[in-house]
Amino acid sequence: MSNVNADATQLLTILKNMRTSISSIETTRSSVKMKYQQLGIGWNDKKYDELGTIVKDCNKALNDILQIMLQAEKYVASLAKSVQEYDNVNLDTPSARNSFLQGLQTPNVGNSSYQYCLGVLTQGSTPDGYIAVISQRHENAEQNVREVFDHFAGKLMIQDSEYPPDQTAHYSPGNYIGHSRGVYYNAASDMTNPRGAGTTYFHELAHMIDHASCNYRSNLSNTPEFAEALVEDGQRILSLYNNLPVEKQTAFLTRIRQDSAHSFSDLIDATTNGQLHGNYGHSRNYWTRPGNLQAEAFAHFFEASMGDQGKLELLANFFPTAFGIFSSMIDSIRPDNHVRVLSRER
Ligand SMILES: [Zn+2]
């Protein structure tokens, strides 16, 4: 069994390729539909109807392929997981021959080492002790949020955990050739993150969960009531602040300038149009794009709930209405609720 390791690596490579194919089928399916509808704007006769039948057949074929792929993906994922679990308990130290075999058997395309981090398929390496740090946060997480994390973990993907540290970590929602859907970040930087170790990991994956929970069509967080609640909470903080005596204002500013208050700073900056902020915040332009405020708040609340008690208290106490809406969103995608909601749609 000297090449068990290589088998796991190969399986994980296959799994990644399957996921890329699945998303590209999904993209094709929706683009065929959209093009047909666009054509319909200026063209609506018998020929258009005939084309409609072809489009329908094409859609059905794509759906069938998609169902098969999704089924197969599930099997490969669980097989890869089992092989890797076996690998982890295998007491044999990886021999030189083993890594030589691995080198032969793994297609050499970019960074091709895969692993699972808290059940999330991850391309690239992580520094020593990193898994322990994020596992600790996972253990200390709020139960409802952790359940959601675990429920979605198998669908999430870290495309690069060695993304250059001087580039901005992000979740890429699109599926571009050479830049597939998933998270890009630097795990080594996240290990010594001044905002708290593991902050980037949970923040970016939260963006992906926000998107995945709507089948990548929109974001769960993108509702007008969530935006309104955020702005109302922010405006209330601003007026409280304005009525504080100067020394208390100074103390408040000192608090929100701490690195650990980065998410609070970001949200108060956004919801007061820059009138109040600490040391962190997105650009004004970023906040003008619809849905961005809700998406960032969702990711900040989620990250804080994954084992950062101090951050969570700050956010939940000062943004109570918005946090309440976030909690309902989480409940709506908790595993047991999710099944109920889906079956009601039929
Ligand atoms: Zn973000």
TrEMBL record:
Q: Which GO terms describe its molecular function?
A: metallopeptidase activity
Q: Which domain of life is it from?
A: Bacteria
Q: Cross-referenced InterPro entries, in alphabetical order?
A: MetalloPept_cat_dom_sf
Supply the name of the protein: Uncharacterized protein
What is the scientific name of the source organism?
A: Faecalibacterium langellae
